[in-house]
């Protein structure tokens, strides 16, 4: 592990957490407050930030608009706002945005009989096996923003 | 070591992220209003469409076959901002060089990990933004630029090329590289170098640096040192007049005052305008950047940038200042102490080109003439009476003009009503 040349005011404090097993990260100097935490810290609340709660990783998070009703079973209505994080892994069970034959589509990823399929929550649509298809996973849907009736002006 | 990270066919790649059907098709991005090709996909390049070609002069077959889009600067600016946010996770020292290129300093990092870091960086940018990037690693900026080119053009590098100064591979690459292809070497310079028997980058590296300075310039001497692996270049030395103009400066001390940033952006935009007129170019868009000092521990960190298109290619400082101010007000946040701000003029075009745009711009010939005479007078006063003798304060409001961009794709990441649509079927 190497050290970057540090500002003399900053002391290296110890081993940094290695974020990626194959690559070591250089040790970044930072100040850590020592001593007992103040009991007042428990009451030091700031405004709840819904955006920060929903958008975990701003650089990789995109908002998209759902069209159609075939994902109702997963709580996605026509016109809903979807929060998509491209940095998440498309694991079975997750709802993903995927380009099928060049068209952005939202589907749930599932394993059926050891084959990975794109599944709609509407039984009228048959599962699409991924094998032999032009498919490009775009991102993982993390949240749905659905506006209830009577709100839109 | 320093890395140059460069997005491949940046504008076209941004369009393809949100319209996957464009993958594999010939795609071109047009400048707004004047309709010249400013970016091309590989497929469009293969059809023989040149950079800067006016759309109305393209053969009808190509116009039918190719997808030609107006430039979507809101989208490109946002994607560029995302890429730089990811780069900042790899090193605190990221220097934006252009809308699609940044230098990432790896000084002090364990040299044996750098290729892995480069690969990881490339995968992460691709995963998070969908944009393909290439990484050139080298001890100096000039060599990093060469390495980046190799990463892009030689498949075996898989997008990441590392060049060490005294490596046989570096030597082989430089021996094959024409000196004119080097970053910062103008064509006229390369012709004069050829007269001295210097045709390749390697021959320039081996040349007598003192002689190079006497015959050419300090900047070219620095390039010689950089080729030998010694850092000598300041980024400001190396603006590429054909593509973009960058003016940026660090504040003497950190400041959180809005008016100080406004004053700095105004000054940078005015200076950029002077440079633009001196080299007889017009700009099509303006990028504004701000950042805090990443090396101050415990300080709240913020960096952002935005691209604002001009209603038509322009070299009028008043217009440049107006859009630069609009850009700054969009990205300025209270509560941070800023270290640096910058103004970059993008997608430059020859000033003679102005004639072509007259027919559709809402500006009469008389107005245009007045603008040119005014700017010439300002430049002369500042040249003869000293810098900042005449300054711009109140940019004229140009909101009355409408930007013509009927072929523009949706502003997928910056407008609620233009988000990408995903089918549930």
Q: Level of helix content of chain B?
A: 25-40%
Write down the overall mean pLDDT of chain B.
Answer: 88
Q: What structural class is derived from the secondary structure elements of chain A?
A: mainly beta
* Cα-to-Cα separation, first versus last residue of chain A: 58 Å
Q: What labels would you give this structure?
A:
heterodimer, A: 153 residues, mainly beta, 7-stranded antiparallel beta sheet, 30% strand, extended, disordered N terminus, B: 425 residues, alpha+beta, 5-stranded mixed beta sheet, 5-stranded antiparallel beta sheet
Notes on the structure:
The complex is a heterodimer of chains A (153) and B (425). With 153 residues, chain A is mainly β. Helix content of chain A is 3%, strand content 30%. Chain A has one helix at residues 50-54; strands at residues 61-67, 81-85, 95-100, 103-112, 115-119, 128-129, 135-145. In chain A, a hairpin with a 2-residue loop joins strand 4 (103-112) and strand 5 (115-119). In chain B, helix 6 links the parallel strand 7 and strand 8. Chain B is globular, with a radius of gyration of 22 Å. Chain B starts with a strand and ends with a strand. Classes of the chains: A mainly beta (153), B alpha+beta (425). Chain A binds chain B through residues 1-5, 7, 9-10, 20, 22-24, 26, 28-31, 57-60, 62-71, 76, 78, 81-82, 86-87, 97, 99, 102-107, 120, 125, 136, 138, and chain B through 20-21, 23, 82, 85-86, 92, 107-110, 113, 116-117, 120, 124, 127-130, 295, 297-298, 412-413, 416, 419-425.
């Amino acid at each position: 592990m190497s050290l970057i040349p540090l500002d003399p005011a900053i002391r290296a404090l110890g081993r940094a957490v290695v974020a990626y097993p194959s690559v070591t990260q250089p040790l970044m100097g930072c100040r850590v407050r020592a001593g007992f935490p103040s009991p007042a810290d428990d009451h030091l609340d700031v405004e709840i930030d819904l955006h920060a709660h929903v958008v975990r990783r701003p650089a990789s998070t995109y908002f998209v608009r759902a069209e159609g009703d075939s994902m109702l079973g997963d709580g996605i209505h026509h016109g809903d706002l979807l929060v998509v994080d491209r940095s998440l892994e498309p694991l079975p069970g997750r709802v993903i945005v995927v380009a099928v034959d060049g068209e952005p589509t939202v589907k749930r990823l599932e394993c059926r009989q050891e084959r990975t399929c794109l599944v709609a929550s509407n039984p009228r649509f048959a599962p699409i096996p991924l094998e032999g298809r032009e498919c490009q996973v775009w991102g993982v849907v993390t949240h749905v923003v659905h506006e209830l009736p009577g709100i839109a002006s | 070591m320093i890395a140059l990270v460069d997005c491949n066919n940046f504008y076209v790649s941004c369009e393809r992220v949100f319209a996957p059907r464009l993958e594999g098709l010939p795609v071109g991005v047009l400048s707004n209003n004047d309709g010249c090709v400013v970016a091309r996909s590989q497929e469009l390049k293969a059809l023989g469409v040149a950079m800067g070609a006016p759309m109305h002069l393209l053969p009808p077959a190509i116009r039918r076959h190719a997808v030609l889009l107006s430039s979507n600067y809101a989208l490109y600016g946002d994607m560029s901002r995302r890429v730089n946010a990811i780069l900042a996770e790899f090193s605190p020292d990221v220097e934006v060089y252009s809308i699609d290129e940044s230098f990432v300093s790896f000084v002090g990092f364990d040299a044996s990990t750098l290729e892995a870091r480069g690969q990881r960086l490339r995968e992460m940018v691709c995963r998070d933004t969908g944009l393909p990037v290439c990484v050139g690693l080298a001890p100096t900026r000039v060599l990093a630029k060469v390495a980046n080119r190799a990463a892009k053009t030689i498949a075996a590098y898989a997008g990441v090329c590392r060049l060490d100064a005294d490596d046989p591979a570096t030597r082989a690459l430089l021996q094959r590289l024409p000196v004119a292809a080097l970053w910062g070497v103008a064509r006229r310079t390369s012709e004069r170098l050829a007269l001295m028997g210097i045709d390749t980058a390697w021959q320039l590296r081996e040349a007598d640096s003192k002689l190079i300075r006497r015959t050419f310039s300090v900047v070219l001497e620095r390039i010689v040192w950089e080729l030998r692996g010694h850092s000598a270049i300041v980024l400001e030395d190396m603006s590429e007049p054909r593509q973009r103009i960058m003016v940026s400066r660090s504040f003497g001390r950190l400041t959180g005052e809005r008016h100080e940033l406004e004053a700095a952006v105004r000054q940078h935009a005015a200076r950029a305008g002077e440079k633009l007129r001196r080299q007889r170019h017009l700009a099509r868009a303006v990028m504004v950047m701000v950042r805090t000092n990443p090396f101050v521990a415990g300080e709240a960190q913020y960096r952002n940038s935005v691209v604002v298109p001009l209603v038509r290619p322009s070299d009028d400082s008043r217009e440049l200042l107006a859009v630069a101010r609009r850009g700054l007000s969009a990205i300025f946040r209270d509560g941070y102490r800023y270290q640096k701000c910058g103004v970059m003029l993008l997608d430059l075009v020859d000033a003679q080109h102005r004639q072509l745009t007259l027919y559709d711009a809402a500006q009469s010939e008389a107005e245009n003439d007045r603008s040119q005479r005014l700017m010439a007078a300002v430049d002369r006063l500042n040249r003869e009476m000293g810098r900042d003798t005449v300054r711009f304060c109140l940019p004229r409001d140009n909101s009355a003009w409408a930007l013509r961009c009927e072929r523009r794709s949706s502003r997928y990441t910056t407008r609620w009503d233009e988000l990408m649509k995903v089918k549930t079927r």
